[in-house]
Amino acid sequence: MESFHFRLARPDALLQLAVLGLISGLITGAVIVIFRLLVEETQDYLLPGDGPENYEALSTGLRLLFPIVSGLLLALLFYKASNGLRVLGVARVMERMAYHQGYLTVRGFILQFVGAALAIIGGHSVGREGPHIYLGAASGSLFGQSLNLPNNSIRTLVASGAAAAIAASFNTPLAGVIFALEVIMMEYTLVSFIPIMLAAVTATGLSNFILGSEPAFSIPDFNFSSFAELPLIILLGLIVGAGAAFYNQLIEIISVKTKHIEIWWKVIAAGVFVAIIGLFYPEVFGIGYDTVNTTLLGGYTVTVLFGLFFAKLLATSLCIGLGVPGGMIGPAFFIGAALGAIVGYLASYFFGYDASDIGFYAILGMGAMVGASLQAPLAALTAIMELTYNPGIIMPGMLTIVIAQLTASEVFNKQSLFISMMRNNGMDYDINPVLQVLRGIGVASVLDNKFTRLSPSTNMAAAKKMITTDAKVNWILINNGEGELKTMLPIAELAKYIQTEQSEKMDDEASESTDIENLEEQDVNLIEIPANRLQLSPISLQANLQQAHEKFVQGAEALYVVFNEEEADKNSRVYGIITKSMVDDSYKL
pTM value? Predict the structure, then answer.
């Protein structure tokens, strides 16, 4: 097992990571299936009619009751069990990846699972994809932590779990892979691709086996028949980009203005607000995939679409801004589909375009809204490609998504909604290419194990033997009086001292032969001899080079690697030494 850990610490441990990615996909797929069955079966039992999202058939009283009761249960959950944990979903995963090596907790997993289930069943205007991503990421992280894997491997398992979650949620494995690489890992390397792809495929297969392979949306047949429609597609990109910026801005305002309020009061308020909106537009309750399907099939008038657009925008902004533990991707699909359908209808009416196939513009609006609001254009494009199974969507989809993203980011200066949520909750986010490289390399792959541990006092003969021994030693770790490691002496410094002492004895014409012979027995205090010594600090075997780099930035001069730095003592096994030059060389090559 130790050999396996050392291999995983390398940045090229492809086969080992592939196996772990496959297992992570199975675990995540099982978690997502259980979550979906729990939510959908409960909805089917509680709601009238057939299907899990028939909130429109609720009476007026029940439309008020569902989200308010859900808000009260969420408040109780956070009050009793959160222990200060307020942010969940994709933003939390990104923050843990950036600053905590992808370590997620059992508490967070339970809060997200129970909280998202309560929110969706209760009709809050949130999606399931964000909770799915968190649950998948946490599954991968907890799996890696249970095996004490190196942190660079845990990061890959987190991304594998996230990809598997999206794949199992939408039946879109490629979109899951791209999202995990584009948003979670923020890197494209072979060693990342393979385990993440295996996780996505495995989770999709498990989900299809249990839940069936029906697509998330009913996509009508369509054709991009004429380049005369390009102006309409460009216009759609501009409008959706502006809508995405407004969506992000509204969530940010609500989040900032209510930051000082305790989370349990906020989720209760969210339930009340959604209940009021749902009295007039019950379609905003829950994820809303049934409404998206109707929109794709051209089942709403322009007037109804306008109402649904603003109602969903407001309801989702209130839920997300007030901290309801749900996702933003599903609502973005809803809002984008409504906008796309509106543009298609209006262009057909005013400009004479052939926009009878409203589903074509609705699907473009869905991709553009997700790409622009989440700043994940490639994942959005891949998602609509897999949802439609139509290569004809690629060119108009790329154009719409690019224009929408540029409009949101450059015209309205909006960042990814995930990053905005992090910063609104006091968490910064820094994208540093050097740190990204260091995160992918474990300390176990670069440590120097050519060392010896000594007490401060020895003699010249022993010191000379250490220098000339066949088993080359590069470092001497010096125990203090209590056996703890505090100081390290490079062997070259000891050799320099011995050479100086010998030269001085040989050059001293007054020296007796016995003085030279006694040199062999001369005491050598490794703490006191003139030399450039380094102060030691411990670091865990599971750590990566980013963590080593941070210790050097904080003032450490050298690091000794133990299994757990929090429990390091005089009896701890030392695996090797890390110096600043080793860290520097790892990203300069």
Answer: 0.86
